[in-house]
Amino acid sequence: QPEVGKPTRNCYSLPGPDFTYGMYLHKRDGGVAEAIGHWDSVKAKPHVRVMPRDFVTMGRMAVGEGCSTAREFALYYKFKDIRCKDEGILRYGCKIPPGMTFGRPARPSTPFFDIMQHRYKELWMESQRARTMVQHVVKKKVRLLQHDVRGNRTTFLRTHPPPAKKESFWHPQRFEKVWTPH
């Protein structure tokens, strides 16, 4: 029976002070001093990048030399090996041209004098006035166009009634050419 208010005791005895917990790795480990003093540096291998062949330029030059058959083109390509130019000057391992800067340019500072004189408010008010004037002119043009627009056929016939037809008696065509004696 465990004692009241106390945890149960385990029956295992702990190993001595010379015991190492975990797995021991046989490496040199001199601590922080050795880590700072002896960096394990990796030598970079020189990276030679082979660019693909520039067939467009080679074809243009072959035509200029007078090649016309596939065999002539193949021989020209064999002896004139032109490669594409490396456009990526900022690839890993390439040298950066002098005077080149990275990042976004800094935003120009806001003139404090314009802020104190409420210049930006005045510019905004002018743009709003110009916008309302343009809207007013557009509305006027729309109104004028609405008066000039002719409506559908019904409204046109109401304003311009067709002329009244004269009364005529209708006869079938077979009675029109009847022979009458004189």
UniProtKB/TrEMBL annotation:
PANTHER family: CILIA- AND FLAGELLA-ASSOCIATED PROTEIN 77. This is CFA77 protein. The gene is Cfap77. Pfam families: CFAP77.
